[in-house]
Amino acid sequence: MTSTRRHFLAGLAPLALPLAFPIGATAAEEGAYPQRPIKLVVPQPPGGPSDIVARFLAESMRANLGQPLVIDNRPGAAGLIGTAAAAAAPADGYTVLVTSRSNHIIAPLVQQGATVQPARDLMPVGLALRAVGILSTPARSPWRSLRELVAAAKAQPGRLFYGSAGIGATNHIALEQFKALAGIDLVHVPYKGSGPLITGLMAGEVQLALLDFASAQPALKGGSVVPLAQTGLRRLSSMAEVPTLVESGFPRFDASFWIGLAVPQGTPAAVIARLSSALDAALADTQMKARAQVNGWELAGGGPAPFEALIRQDMADFPPLVKRLDIKA
Prior knowledge:
single chain; 329 residues; alpha/beta; disordered N terminus
């Protein structure tokens, strides 16, 4: 489009506005939002945790909003490509980011040259869920509680190993945080993804790993891996015998894998409220609750405020940790 044509159309826009709404009113105030499909940007490839959650939410939120929610997978740069695309979209409620701790907090800290800053460039809609993680050890290890493993690590500094899905991965950062809180020295062994990590844990190459609930199930059910603690706020009914981190003596260690919705900075408050209400309704759905049980999710909701508080806490906790570890990608 030429510059002259852009200026011409821009000049027409104010003239057209009174035909649609009274002066000073917005689509959201008139109850007109949404009037067309909403794009859900997922900054990871299809099949991952964020993508799975996005598809469930799209299905559940459609009934409340009266418009389809279309999944737009934008993977790359540890989630920053999709995050940047969502942040740069018009602030009109028709582009919503399915965001996680990985791309919202950690990736901007470790990816050199990152220009998007999600905590600055996006506004929270609501926290959808926390995906429970399982702190696990090989079945061949002698420990059956997190306290026992911590005691052994203190007695043998630098002699025990923990694994992650890679340098800068969420479970790498989380277990470095755990080391600091517990006052122990574990040696980091990075693997190329969750699959190799679980294989290494089962083989006894490392003594500790933080696994997401769904990925851990085959190894746990097969008996080759033993759960020491779960990251949820309360015990999952399917793992009622496994204590939480709080019960294990680590109330400040939040290693859950959270997923929420965010919109571009400047999105009208009425639009955010509409999206937040639809999210809460989706999370209250019976089918969504059943899915949460199967996948080890703690459903959240409650509006933008608690999600914003979580982001602020993460932004206080993770930057100094990443700086201390000198992690760069």
